Amino acid sequence: MTLIISQMENLNMEEWFDAKLQKNEMIEPKDWMPDNYRKHLIRQISQHAHSEIIGMLPEGNWITRAPSLRAKIVLMAKVQDEGGHGLYLYTAAETLGTSREEVLDALHTGKAKYSSIFNYPTLTWADIGMVGWLVDGAAIMNQVMLQRTSYGPYSRAMVRICKEESFHQRQGYESVCHLAFGTPEQKAMAQDALNRWWWPTLMMFGPTDDKSPNSAQAIKWKIKRESNDQLRQRFVNQTVSQAEYLGLTIPDPDLKWNEERQAYDFGTPNWDEFAAVVAGNGPCNKERLQLV
Ligand code: 3HC
After folding, report:
1. How far is the CA of 10 from the centre of ligand 1 (A)?
2. Is the whole-model pTM more than 0.70?
3. What atom in ligand 1 is closest to the CA of residue 47?
4. Of the residues 48, 54, 160, 215, which has the maximum number of CB atoms within 10 A of its CB?
């Protein structure tokens, strides 16, 4: 009898949950939720947190080598912010019943991922500008959308993080402006960094929608409000004019304005490289080993 009642309850609870989503009401930690919704969120939020913390490493590497006291202070503030973002997100994940130890163990044993972009080494100061301008610019594109995610603690963490992320993007863009309008050597350094960071940045939005195993369910549950390809396209549309203003060339021969689509057509990231980097053996991983 109990089994039937609990099945009835689950059936009603499932309907109650779906009705809340339909009404665009936030799902809160104490609310009933499908186990797979909970698991999906723990996966995404904890990996988001890992990315914030690991993102501190390539940038932190340049604090002692920043070219001015001002640049050093701004970069220190930014790296500290990223640490805070990681903590908000780990805390949001913990409201779903996981623990800090569990999610960190998943990271350390390789079960959990973090954004592949942070496997690419920051070889020059121009790279730090690209991390702010491109990487944080892409992160904002994604995180502004996630402010409307259906899970309350994640949405509220995103509102706070987006405010600080905008400063990160401006910090990077200002730094690249300084180089692009500086000496020919500085401009060449900025172009070299753009050549190395453009494509890995496009990969931050995840695989193409037809190859994204999690997106359909994420959109059904209103965890994602837009798809990987939609956000990638918006990022390209917004960034091309910034590169043109800087006098820098985006390393994509297929980049072309499409009047009919009112959007840029662009080439295809190297998805084999993406898979290799995510698996921990991409070209940059070897490069980093040589650097050490
Ligand atoms: N690097 C590593 N793994 C990636 C990836 C990337 N750039 N893009 C996708 N993946 C993984 C996914 O995690 C998933 O693997 P999993 O099932 O084992 O977790 C697999 O590739 C398939 O991708 P899907 O598109 O099906 O997965 P999602 O629906 O989760 O979409 C996502 C991927 C768009 C990254 C989504 O997880 C998301 O929006 N996450 C939150 C934002 C985030 O994590 N951004 C990372 C950067 S944060 C940052 O840079 C902040 C900066 O200030 C430091």
Report:
1. 30
2. yes
3. 44
4. 48
Give the C-alpha distances (Å, rounded to integers) separating 126 from 7, 35, 226.
58, 44, 31
Determine if ligand 1 sits within 6 Å of the CB of residue 51: yes
For a mutational test of ligand 1's pocket, the pick from 51, 53, 78, 205, i.e. the residue with the most ligand atoms closer than 8 A to its C-beta, is 51
Angstrom distance (rounded) from CA 217 to CA 223 = 8
Q: Which amino acid is at 224?
A: K
pLDDT in tens, the chain (292 residues): 455 556 656 669 999 999 999 999 999 999 999 999 999 999 999 999 999 999 999 999 999 999 999 999 999 999 999 999 999 999 999 999 999 999 999 999 999 999 999 999 999 999 999 999 999 999 999 999 999 999 999 999 999 999 999 999 999 999 999 999 999 999 999 999 999 999 999 999 999 999 999 999 999 999 999 999 999 999 999 999 999 999 999 999 999 999 999 999 999 999 999 999 999 888 877 655 454 4
**Measured from the CA of 116, which atom of ligand 1 is nearest?**
1
d(CA 179, CA 237): 23
**Does the beta carbon of 81 lie inside 6 Å of ligand 1?**
no
- 26-30: long-range contacts (C-beta < 8 A, 24 or more apart)? 26/150, 26/151, 26/152, 26/155, 27/150, 27/151, 27/152, 28/152, 28/153, 29/95, 29/96, 29/152, 29/153
- Whether 94 lines ligand 1, by a CB cut-off of 6 Å, is no
Atom number in ligand 1 closest to CA 165: 53
